[in-house]
Amino acid sequence: MVGCCAALLAACSPTFDWRPVAFGQDGAAGVLPDTPQAQTRPVAFEGRTLDLTMRSAQAGGVLFALGAAPLPPDWAADEPARRRLARWAVEALYRNAGAEPPGPDADPERRFSFEGRGPQGPVRVEAQVRVTSTEWLEAVVIAGPDDHARAPVDDFWLSLRWPDGAVSAGPGALPR
Length: 176
Prior knowledge:
Layout: H1 2-12, E1 19-23, E2 28-32, E3 37-45, E4 48-59, E5 62-70, H2 79-96, E6 112-118, E7 121-131, E8 135-143, H3 145-150, H4 153-159
Antiparallel strand pairs: 1-2, 3-4, 4-5, 5-8, 6-7, 7-8
């Protein structure tokens, strides 16, 4: 009986077939739970158009995504513009999920988490945005609260490597 129940539960469990994925042009990498789908879309920011390419995969009701957009060459020396882009990107994630963005004192490049609303109801969003001298990078996880709780989301975050060699902070450092 126990073996039968275990087999049935295994059959219902989502498959997380983690695959390494490079994103961006300067060595950012992570894993996605299935074959990634890539989509590029233009994003308007301060009179410029940035081509953001998102690589994403879904498993167990959880969407995992890694994104990158090259920056205009003249932004390499414009740290204030890069900070504004990082803050704008964080605020956009909040607004897209119907949540109130963090205040102006929040570090826009620190991993964050919040509750919002998606087309199917409540969602939990975890994300981190990094803007280097050459590119805008994002790592995002979106799921319903129950799906998020059951998924190995920490595996995604532990795999993440930014171009400067930095890794994402562990779950204990995650602001709520």
